[in-house]
Amino acid sequence: MTGKNNDEFDAFKRDIDAAERRVAGEIDPGPRALVVAILVFVLIGSFALPHAGGARGWDVLFGGPVAGHAAIALPSRVFTWLALVFSVGFSMLALLTRRWVLAWVALAGSAVAIPAGLLAVWSRQTAGAGHPGPGIGLIIGWAMVILLTFHWARVVWSRTAVQLAAEEERRRGAAERQSKGFLESLDDNDRDEP
């Protein structure tokens, strides 16, 4: 009878451990979710605005004659792709799924997009004579990426009370297991067997 109870308890303990891991892998952005969603929406809108001369953000992304005429350089293309993939794509995925890993990817990619945006603006400001400077879409897009990075950093590094309690319980259990000597752990295993 004791073996059956131990099996049931072990199954129950495995279920609780799985639930703790699932909760630890989730984020709770709270009111920041609305802020992030608005920033993503504005960032998408910035792709419809001019990034340089007549070249809109979509033209910069996909190339073409308009982007070629405005002499769009590599930093602008890299920035727009990083902003689209990480600041828009992974941000939406992280908001929809509430997965911690996706939020980290959105944060890391957006953080990489910040210096790429700086280079994109700088390369437009130092363009040769006759080429347009940075457009309002590029400036707004860069500002949205900076703000998204800030908000994702706040979301990723914040922990809920349930997550903190689960981490504390895991630490306490690990400390108990480490404090026991080898012979004590063998003695505990002998008591558990029928």
What does this structure look like?
Strands 1-2 form a two-stranded antiparallel sheet. The protein has 2 domains: 128 residues; 35 residues. It is elongated. With 194 residues, it is mainly alpha-helical. Strand 1 and strand 2 form a beta hairpin. The chain has 9 helices and 2 strands, in the order ααββααααααα. Helix 2 packs antiparallel against helix 5, helix 2 runs antiparallel to helix 7 and helix 5 runs antiparallel to helix 6.
Salient structural properties:
194 residues; mainly alpha; two-stranded antiparallel sheet; 3% strand; elongated
Write the layout of secondary structure elements.
Layout: H1 2-24, H2 32-46, E1 50-52, E2 55-56, H3 57-62, H4 65-69, H5 74-97, H6 100-125, H7 136-156, H8 161-179, H9 182-192
Antiparallel strand pairs: 1-2
Helix pairs in contact: 2-5, 2-7, 5-6, 5-7, 6-7
Short description:
Helix content is 77%, strand content 3%.
Number of strands: 2
Radius of gyration: 26 Å
Helix amount? over 70%
| Element pattern in H and E | HHEEHHHHHHH
Report the sheet with the most strands, covering strand number, pairing sense and barrel closure.
2 strands, antiparallel
- Write out the strand line-up for the largest beta sheet, numbering strands in chain order: 1-2
User: Which segments are poorly predicted (pLDDT under 50) over 5 or more consecutive residues?
Assistant: none
Question: How many helical elements?
Answer: 9
Instruction: Give the percentage of residues in beta strands.
Output: under 5%
**How far apart are the termini?**
9 Å
The overall pLDDT, averaged over residues, is: 82
Helix-and-strand structural type: mainly alpha
Broad shape: elongated
Count of distinct structural domains: 2
